[in-house]
Specification:
The chain is α/β, with parallel strands linked by helices. The relative contact order is 0.08.
Length: about 550
């Protein structure tokens, strides 16, 4: 059963109910109009730009997209890329691609022109659907892209090198296309985040998508009355598959453009949001604003907010302890996953296990986990090794990359590249990325452990630990530290704070600087290593 069946079910059972809301606080309007099937609600100039669609309209628009693609010669197994910011068109286009039998290929909206071209060629994209914000990037490479590819523009004033999405779908049928979809059919290609190099194309089938949707609804007990607030980009597996819990439940979701603490709390209050997925930086900024008095909880209606969950990166336990001081009644969950495992949830803490804050959790719904050494043998309880996962959400392969596929897929197990350990209660703890482990004087040092320790310092806003080249030890630990606004901190203060760490784990070099993160909140350690670390130092030595 494909996830598109849930959309058709919701249109039949809950057709007139709101499915999706798009909210953009940066745009102000003064009027209320109805345009095509979208309703724009703008009561006053103080209100944010807001659009919404019902489940019926959602399904009909997806059908129009599917029929448009079929009329243009797109067939089952062809690839259709999406390069757009979060908006009300995004999910109907995605589901229309699935309904046509084609393969949906979401592009990271941070891709530069070289990455767009590279990923289009790697995934063998046949159609690229893009938004207004990307006209410049696409125009500069359109001659190369348009060769054998259909370029479709979503927005007003369509550029001459593309075709208008609205014009193409306007006269297409809103009835479901007659395309049979099986669980084993290819469904989507996602790209790795690129934090370990150039993106890889990750192929999933329809069974993977269904597994992710059902698992999300089960893990967070999403019900018909819940309202999910989605802020991260929909091109990412995390955002989309967390939203799919709402799809399975038939409940409303809000797509918010904006990550400022006041915008998030105002949206939760006004839209009656009950489930919110935050990235670590956003949660930190909310807490900082509350600590500073810039925000007051009494200004908002937050009584319906029942669950805050975080994923996409290691979560410092100190952050959750801090969070519970302001939100003692919140349920909390963290989810671990990779794009290769259809995003978050193959390991999850569970809302009932907040006493285990710091762990990534236990195997998720229908998943198995194990920890192995470098020879593939399972390690003893408490030992550190590579985390492996197995379940119906494991990718089919790295598209057009059999060598990389063979390196991570072995006997149905996905080797994640993450180092982990399991405690006596069966809970898994993430130690670090295998490639991020620092080897100093023969000792394995796991940066996440040091980052979690430093996150407890009252003046530290964000921190990343990387390996720095050292002639005697091979590598030493370096901590890049971002200090909270309005505060000052010295190296001596950090060194004194680190006296509680074992000597070999104490950072040998402190760098006060911003910590770069990607759109899903992950620390961009390759960029830090290039700027401060091994690669930079080796380059300097070679130049010398």
């Amino acid at each position: 059963m494909p996830v598109t069946d849930y959309l058709e079910r919701n249109a039949k059972l809950y057709g007139n109910e709101i499915a999706l809301v798009e909210l953009n606080p940066t745009i102000k309007e003064t009027k209320r109009i109805t345009w095509r099937e979208y309703e724009l609600i703008q009561p006053t100039t103080s209100e944010a730009y807001r659009r919404q669609i019902t489940w019926t309209v959602f399904d009909e628009k997806a059908n129009r997209v599917a029929n448009m693609l079929l009329e243009r010669g797109i067939k089952k197994g062809d690839k259709v890329a999406i390069l757009m910011f979060n908006c009300l068109e995004w999910l109907p286009i995605y589901f229309g691609i699935l309904k046509s039998g084609a393969i949906a290929v979401p592009f990271n909206f941070r891709f530069d022109t070289d990455e767009i071209k590279y990923c289009a060629e790697l995934a063998e994209v046949d159609v690229l659907i893009f938004g207004t914000e990307f006209i410049g990037r696409i125009e500069s490479i359109c001659e190369k892209l348009s060769k054998g590819r259909l370029l479709i523009f979503v927005g007003d004033n369509c550029p001459t090198f593309a075709e208008s999405y609205h014009a193409l779908v306007a006269d297409c049928s809103s009835k479901p296309p007659l395309v049979r979809i099986e669980d084993e059919d290819d469904a989507a290609i996602y790209f790795s985040s690129g934090t370990t190099g150039f993106p890889k194309a990750i192929l999933h089938n329809h069974e993977s998508l269904m597994q992710a949707a059902q698992m999300e609804q089960k893990h967070h007990e999403t019900g018909r009355d819940d309202v999910f607030l989605c802020i991260p980009p929909l091109y990412h597996t995390g955002a989309k598959f967390h939203w799919m819990g709402s799809l399975v439940a038939g409940s409303r979701a809000v797509l918010l453009k904006g990550t400022q603490p006041d915008v998030i709390l105002k949206t939760i209050s006004q839209e009656n949001c009950s489930i919110v997925w935050l990235l670590v930086p956003w949660a930190q900024e909310i807490l900082e604003a509350l600590d500073n008095g810039d925000l007051k909880l009494s200004d908002y209606n937050l009584s319906q907010w029942r669950l805050m969950h975080i994923g996409a990166q290691p979560v410092p336990p100190s952050l959750i302890k801090h969070w519970k001081k302001y939100f003692p009644d919140h349920k909390y969950d963290t989810n671990y996953g990779l794009s290769e495992s259809t995003g978050p949830g193959c390991v999850h803490l569970g809302m009932e296990n907040i006493h285990k804050v710091g762990a990534i959790g236990i195997p998720g719904y229908r998943w198995q986990c194990k920890i192995v050494d470098e020879n593939g043998n399972e390690v003893k309880q408490g030992g550190v090794g590579e985390l492996c996962v197995k379940g119906p959400g494991v990718m089919t392969c790295y598209y057009n990359d059999p060598k990389s596929t063979a390196e991570v897929l072995k006997d149905g197990w996905l080797f994640t590249g993450d180092m982990a350990m399991m405690d006596e209660d069966g809970f898994y703890f993430l130690v670090d990325r295998k490639k991020d482990v620092i080897i100093s004087g023969g000792e394995n040092i796991y940066p996440v452990q040091i980052e979690n320790f430093l996150a407890n310092h009252p003046k530290i806003k964000d921190v990343a630990v990387i390996g720095l080249a050292d002639k005697r030890l091979g590598e030493i630990t370096g901590a890049i530290i971002s200090i909270k606004d309005g505060m000052e901190c010295t190296e001596d203060e950090i060194n004194e704070f680190c006296m509680d760490l074992p000597r070999y784990k104490r950072p040998k070099k402190i760098i006060f600087a911003d910590v770069p993160r990607n759109a899903t909140g992950k620390i961009e350690k390759p960029a830090l290593r290039k700027k401060y670390g091994v690669e930079n130092l080796v380059a300097q030595e070679n130049m010398g």
